[in-house]
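Re: the request from the purification team.
They wanted to know what the chain is likely to look like in 3D before they choose a buffer screen. I agreed to run a prediction and write the result into the notebook, where they can find it.
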Amino acid sequence: MPTTSLYLDLVIDDRAGAMSALAAAIGAAEIASVLIRTSDGGSLEPNSARDLIAFAQAKDIAVLLTPETGNAAKLGADGVHLPWAENIVVEFKAARQTAKSGAIVAADAGRSRHDAMELGEAGADYIAFGIPPHVDDREKAAERQIGLIKWWAELFELPCVAFDVPDERAAHELAVAGADFIAVSIRASDSEKDIADRLRSFSESIRVPEPAK
């Protein structure tokens, strides 16, 4: 069974605490990639964004931004992640066309298998399966997400990321289903201890033992 890695989803709601939150997360567990976004949908101050990006990249961690957070190319990020939207395929194709050569461009397909396949065909570097915020029945949505991850992992080689993962139990189930990456979400306003504890618990939960031969 392929190894599942952690993908840090850093939600910045306290600009002053962003660097300490990022440092606490990176110090607590091995992280493959970081997505930096803001809780209010606004942009980051450019110098602050560059500092966060440089800090993570110095640890050999790829950094992505959402479009509203800032211009990924100008700020030195490795690429862009497009959150789920009803016209996600159209948005992705536009982003792919304007991205610099070698940049990571990826998107969240939500709960649509059709969109996921179209995004893959259009050149996405990974496909994310999250639970859109407007969904009321989160339990049913979580079951659907596991099914999507399992379907994708069995049929496609393109990596998939599970977003909107509430706890370590869900993280474990998604890792067993075949997710290449599990997104663990933290907020910049969280305490460093809470951030470190969350990262460690998720890191432990995604270690899936090889099946007995």
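For the purification team: The mean pLDDT is 94.
Please add any questions underneath this entry.
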